[in-house]
Amino acid sequence: MTTNPLDDATLSPFHKKLALFSSGGPFLDGYILSIIGVALAQITGQWRLNESEQGLIGASTLLGIFLGAFAGGWLTDKFGRKTLFTVDLVAIIVFSAAQFFVGDVVWLIVLRLLIGIAVGADYPIATSLLAEFSPRKYRGPLLGLYVTMWFVGAAAAYIFGEMLTGLGEGGWRWMLASAALPALAIVLARIGTPESPRWLAKVGKVEEANAVLEKVYGPGVSIADLPEEVKEGFNVRALITSGYGGRMMFVTVFWTASIVPLFAVYAFAPAILGALHLDGSMAQVGSAVITVMFMVGCLLACLVVNRMGRRPLMIHSFLWSGLALLLLGLFPSAPTAIVMALFIGYAVLIGGTQIMQWVYPNELFPTEIRGSAVGLASSLSRIGAAIGTYLVPVALSGLGIGVTMLIAGVITLLGAGISLVWAPETRGLSLAESAALGGKSSSRSRPVGLSQP
């Protein structure tokens, strides 16, 4: 294994701050997608929403993420990471605050769509920046901690949502508008973040790249220390026309299998727990507890991702969490303690797949197309997530909670099969090594494009 000052750097205060500020995007995503589940309990009664309208409100943000993730990925590859790192959050502030004044279903759906576009754009921007600054030893855990903040945001949404319910009929307006406050704090924290030296080197801004490298890594570090990966000359067409198409297929399919059940559950967690005999405030408290367990699962996955390896972690995570959902589906009338135990088991065990959503895409693609690849994978995976979220209220009323949970379990177990066949191992590799076609990443079986002879 070759060494260089970037890939083998120690974890500095700069890296820690960048990881924290970057994680603001998933925090807001978790908050925004979860607070709507609490707010809908009030909105549905006041506006007399039917099941289709509830589904559209829940799915609109995911559709926005679908649009925003690819757009943000393309923009960050073309114009850099730094500026877009703050601009997208300004949009979240504006559209979140506007929800307070919304007067009908159509405008609420439109605003949720626009918020989703801004949230989706932040994912490829922030993760590309974090991956390109992170030393190889810490890249997996830092990207894993990034997604952990999604669950912190979701837990905060359930807690504050329950508090704001006490404001009466207008409580849901305060719930939806409240996302503007953490978004403002994150924007202020991100000011002053430097541009990625890998991206600067790619576009020929040598002096700027050297200045950033010296500031972050110390005197004497320059673009000469960057691996050859930044000079390969790929563009976004490589996602389709080269061997990277196989990698894109793998990332998109496993990501979809991971988030379809999770996002569907999160958008309607109080309703699902209510169907499992946890009603009223107990459903809200149960949602918050399960969310904390999701966070615990991600933290545990971060601790073992380097020891266990990317591939085994994801296979086991899919397998055991899928079994927990199947048991929920088979025994929906089980005692409350067992229902909560199975939900908590799913929450903890699915953590491995959650952190790999951001580790794999950033490790399997080169700097030139990293943002576009992450954005496209995020966008494509949200198609299934949006469909799943839209169908949850329909499935709950038409099929029942047992069948709904069985479907979620089957999708999760399909993820285990996909990982067993396709997942590569990138543990301990530099970005150049893991992103290179025909490089050192390995698995027993890969889709076309994960390696070439």
TrEMBL record:
<feature type="transmembrane region" description="Helical">
    <location>
        <begin position="55"/>
        <end position="76"/>
    </location>
</feature>
<dbReference type="InterPro" id="IPR020846">
    <property type="entry name" value="MFS_dom"/>
</dbReference>
<feature type="transmembrane region" description="Helical">
    <location>
        <begin position="337"/>
        <end position="360"/>
    </location>
</feature>
<feature type="domain" description="Major facilitator superfamily (MFS) profile">
    <location>
        <begin position="18"/>
        <end position="427"/>
    </location>
</feature>
<feature type="transmembrane region" description="Helical">
    <location>
        <begin position="398"/>
        <end position="423"/>
    </location>
</feature>
<feature type="transmembrane region" description="Helical">
    <location>
        <begin position="372"/>
        <end position="392"/>
    </location>
</feature>
<dbReference type="InterPro" id="IPR005829">
    <property type="entry name" value="Sugar_transporter_CS"/>
</dbReference>
<feature type="transmembrane region" description="Helical">
    <location>
        <begin position="249"/>
        <end position="273"/>
    </location>
</feature>
<dbReference type="Pfam" id="PF00083">
    <property type="entry name" value="Sugar_tr"/>
</dbReference>
<dbReference type="InterPro" id="IPR036259">
    <property type="entry name" value="MFS_trans_sf"/>
</dbReference>
<protein>
    <submittedName>
        <fullName>MFS transporter</fullName>
    </submittedName>
</protein>
<keyword id="KW-1133">Transmembrane helix</keyword>
<feature type="transmembrane region" description="Helical">
    <location>
        <begin position="172"/>
        <end position="192"/>
    </location>
</feature>
<feature type="transmembrane region" description="Helical">
    <location>
        <begin position="18"/>
        <end position="43"/>
    </location>
</feature>
<feature type="transmembrane region" description="Helical">
    <location>
        <begin position="83"/>
        <end position="102"/>
    </location>
</feature>
<keyword id="KW-0813">Transport</keyword>
<feature type="transmembrane region" description="Helical">
    <location>
        <begin position="285"/>
        <end position="306"/>
    </location>
</feature>
<keyword id="KW-0472">Membrane</keyword>
<keyword id="KW-0812">Transmembrane</keyword>
<feature type="transmembrane region" description="Helical">
    <location>
        <begin position="313"/>
        <end position="331"/>
    </location>
</feature>
<dbReference type="InterPro" id="IPR005828">
    <property type="entry name" value="MFS_sugar_transport-like"/>
</dbReference>
<feature type="transmembrane region" description="Helical">
    <location>
        <begin position="143"/>
        <end position="160"/>
    </location>
</feature>
